[in-house]
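Quick one, T. Sequence first:
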Amino acid sequence: MITAATPERLSWPRRIGWAVGDLGINFYWQGITIFGYFFYTDVMGITPYWAGVAYAVASFWDAAIDPVIGAVADRTRTRWGRFRPWILFGSVPVGLAFALMYWTPPLAGAWLIGYAIATHILLRTLLASVGIPFGALSARLTHDSNERGVLAALRVVFAATGALIVAFTVPKFVALFDQPQRAYFWAAVSLGCGATIILVLTFFSTHEVQEGPEDGGGASTEARGGIVAGVVRDVADFWMTLRHNGPLQLLFAVFILGGISGMFYKITLYWITYDLQQPAAMVWILPLPALVLLPCAPPWNWLARKTSKRNAFLIGQAINLVALLAFYVLNPHDTRLLAVILVVAAIGASAGPIMFWSMLPDTVEYNELKRGVRSEAKIFGFAAFALKIAMGINALLLGQWLTRVGFVANQPQSAQTLEAMLAIMCLVPLAGGIVAMLVMWKYPIDARFHAQLRADIAARKAVEASALAPP
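C-alpha cells:
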C-alpha cells in the first residue's frame, strides 16, 4: 500500500514493522560474517588462502550487483510501492540459498572451492535483492531526521537480536550434532525458515509514502520502456553522485575503513578455539556483544539528539578502541576479565551502526538539494557497494595473513602464530578505527544543518510549483 500523506512521526507498530525486518536479514548477514570464513576453513576444509578468495569473490560480486539492484528498485512501480515487493518475493529464495551455502557436498579440491564460491555468490545476490530495498524503504517511511534516528536505533536493536540468535543457535547445533557439517547445515535451515517468516511480516507491516504521481500503482513510462537504459545511467552516475555529495563521501570512507579493518569478529572464533582453547565458551562469548548492544541503542540515540550523530559516533568509537587495545595487551583468558572487555567493546561499537544508518538517509536530502534527485535505493546500494568491496579486501588480507603466520586448521598452533593472530584481531581494527574517527570529524550534517536542508528543499519546490502554476 502507498499513502499520499507524508508522516513525520510513525506509530510504534509501523516503526517496529519495518525495523524487525533487520532481524531476518541479520540471520543471514551474521551467519556470513561471524561463521562464514571459519566454516570454510575448519568445517568445509578449504585452506585459509582459498577461503579468503571464495569470500572475496562473493563480496566483490555483491558489491557490483548492489548498485544495479538499487537502480532497478528505484524504478520499480507496483501497487505495493517500489521496495516492498522485493522484500516479499525475495524472502523464500534467500532462505534456500543460505542452506545451500552451509551444506558441505561430497566434493574435494577445486570442485569444493567452486561450490563454495557459487553458493556464496547466489546467497549474496538474493540477500542484496532484499536488503537494498529494505534499507531504502526507511527513507520512504518518514522525512524527519529524528524519526529516522528512532528507526535506526530500532533497526540496530533487531540487528543485534539477530546476531544474538545466530551466535547462540549455531554453537548449540554444533553441540547437538556429532558432525559439524550437519550441524551448520541444519542451523542454516532453521535460521532461514525464521527469516522468511519475519520478512513476510515486514512486507505486511509497512507502507510507502507517495512522493509524486509517478509513485502510484502501475509502471511508469520509464519503468516500462527504459529500465535497462535507466539502470545503465544510474550505474554510470555513481561517481557523479559521490562528487556532489560530500557527506556521503565521508560515510563511504568510514564504511570502507570499517570493512577492511574489521578483523576482530572474524578472528574471535579462531581465538576461542586455538588460544583460549575452550570451544564450549563459544556459546556465551559470541552472543555477549549482541546482548550488550540491545540496551545501548536508546542511549546512543539520546546522545545524538542532544549533541549530534557525529559526536555520538566519535565517542562510541573511542570507547571501542580502548577496549581493543586492552584486549591486545592483556590477552584475557580469565573469563571475568574477558567478559568485561567484551562488554566495553560492545558498548562502544554499538554507536557505529546506529549512527551510520541514521546518517545515511539524511544524505538522501543532501543529494536532492544538490542534484535535484533523491534516489534512495541507489544511495543505499552504493553504500552497500563500498562496504562489500571492503569486505572482499578484508577476506583476501585475512587469507594471506593466516597463511603467512602459519595457521593450519584443526591443528595446534605455535606461540608465534597465536601472537600474530592476536595482533590481526586487535591492532588492525584499532588502526582502522583511528583513521575512521579522523574522517568522521569532518561530517557536517547535524540537526540544525538538516533542518535548513529540508527548508531549502521546500523553498525550491515552492518556487518551482509557483512557476508551473497557471497565471
